[in-house]
Amino acid sequence: MIMKGKKGIVLGVANQRSIAWGITQSLLNQGADVAVACLNEKNRITLEKMLVDHPEVPIYECDVTKPETIESTFAALEEKYGQIDFMVHCLAFADKNDLDGGFINTTLDGFNLANDISAYSLVSLTKAARPLMKEGGSIVALSYLGAEKIVTNYNVMGVAKAALECSVRYLANDVGPEGIRVNAVSAGPIKTLAARGISNFSRMLKVQEKLSPLRKANTIEEVGDAAMFLCSDLSRGMTAEIMYVDAGFNTIGVGPTDAYDVD
């Protein structure tokens, strides 16, 4: 088990469909000591049921819009583990009204909200995790193709993910001398709680299934294994990278012509 002896935290586990849950399972399967962070008490109850076979996994409540909860979470981690080896950031949020129609209609409040929770939180969490990574470590964030290319209706989340990916690179440069690596996984569309807020998401999923080189959508297990790899020593030479796990969809210019209704 390649993560045996490694300790860390996954932030953003909402339910069994969460990509964060796929990552948590992969880390546990490979022997890691994993803590998870949720938003509130309601979320905690859900996680307790999901982790019934893993009573050793601590659950912390962490709302990244409240700095005091970040501080308390990492204080609890230090008390439990002494130090950590990895942190996985699976946090993103935007007002549902900003995920339909034109990006040009995004409000300032909506713009700030999406970027605060989806991008700046990586900065604040990395700052909190840094002192606990006393022997180096790995920080992994979760992104999507909308950070790089236009994805209809993804709108302000695309801008926030672009900020996240840029933050990955600058953070990697800041903490690299301490042996801490920062990377991101850019996952394909998956039916998660967050994804359901994007207008016409089901059609986006069908597009990937028709056009991607693997002709399929991704699973949380596939993304989970990739993130686990980035947390492990097997990826020790990688930092400041965005690794795509999207069945190759990001490489497509024009896919199979029979997938298009152009007649």
How would you describe this protein?
The chain is an alpha/beta fold. 39% of the residues lie in helices and 14% in strands. It is built from seven helices and seven strands, in the order E-H-E-H-E-H-E-H-E-H-E-H-H-E. The longest helix has 22 residues, at 108-129. It is globular, with a radius of gyration of 18 Å. The N and C termini lie far apart (53 Å).
What is the element layout, followed by pairings?
Elements: E1 7-11, H1 19-29, E2 33-38, H2 41-50, E3 59-61, H3 67-81, E4 86-89, H4 108-129, E5 137-143, H5 155-175, E6 180-187, H6 201-211, H7 220-231, E7 242-245
Parallel strand pairs: 1-2, 1-4, 2-3, 4-5, 5-6, 6-7
Helix pairs in contact: 1-7, 3-4, 4-5
Q: Can you give keywords for this protein?
A:
single chain, alpha/beta, 7 helices, 7 strands
Structure summarized in a few sentences:
With about 260 residues, the chain is an alpha/beta fold.
How much of the sequence lies in strands comes to: 5-15%
Number of helices: 7
Rough outline = globular
Q: Tell me the structural class.
A: alpha/beta
The strand line-up of the biggest sheet is 3-2-1-4-5-6-7
CATH uppermost class: Alpha Beta
At CATH level 2, the architecture is: 3-Layer(aba) Sandwich
